[in-house]
Write a structure and sequence with these properties.
globular, 17 strands, mainly beta, 13-stranded antiparallel sheet, 183 residues, 8% helix, four-stranded antiparallel sheet, single chain
């Protein structure tokens, strides 16, 4: 009798947590629905590859989320609270090395962000306030020598972004006004 009762309870519990598959914005999503809202762990796929993994609570992202490159390597991870990025977010190169990190509050970069070369040496430090880039604090090549990353003062100026992902001589130029990207 105990076995039948235990088996019945397990059957009821597993039927309540049936995996649902949805298609959203070109991604296949697998997880659980409760009252037609995403609950618990969900995994998103693009072209059969894992794109992201994280938890939902009443249809809002909550807790640690991880995002992946097409090759399966971790791209970024951080925390969501009520569907907004909050806390320290970490980023990685597609080859797996640590790329950088910084704090996000309500989906906006805040404070000092540090980015690194693949060899682990510091590339640049940038200061943000409520999502606005206010200052480039430092910029170094992979050997620790000073590098020109442009100049941003009080949110105004030019940023030169070097290709640390592929370690090429490619440089992109971005104009900022009041901390906001203009091009």
């Amino acid at each position: 009798m105990k076995k039948i009762l235990l088996l019945s309870i397990l059957l009821i519990l597993t039927s309540c947590f049936k995996t649902t598959t949805l298609t959203e914005n070109g991604k296949v999503a697998k997880g659980h629905l409760k009252n037609n809202m995403k609950q618990g762990k969900w995994t998103f796929f693009v072209d059969g590859n894992i794109y992201s993994v994280g938890n939902y609570s009443q249809n809002n992202k909550n807790g640690i989320w991880k995002y992946f490159y097409d090759n399966g390597k971790l791209h970024q991870k951080g925390k969501f609270i009520d569907d907004k990025q909050n806390g320290i977010w970490s980023y990685y190169f597609d080859s797996g090395e640590f790329m950088g990190k910084g704090q996000i509050i309500n989906n906006n970069q805040n404070g000092l962000w540090k980015w690194y070369h693949k060899n682990g040496n510091l590339y640049t430090e940038r200061f943000y306030d409520n999502g606005r880039l206010l200052e480039i604090k430092s910029c170094l090549d992979k050997n620790g020598n000073e590098l020109n990353c442009g100049k941003i003062v009080n949110g105004n100026g030019i940023l030169f972004n070097h290709d640390t992902q592929n370690e090429t001589d490619t440089i992109e130029q971005f104009k900022f006004e009041n901390g906001i990207l203009k091009n």
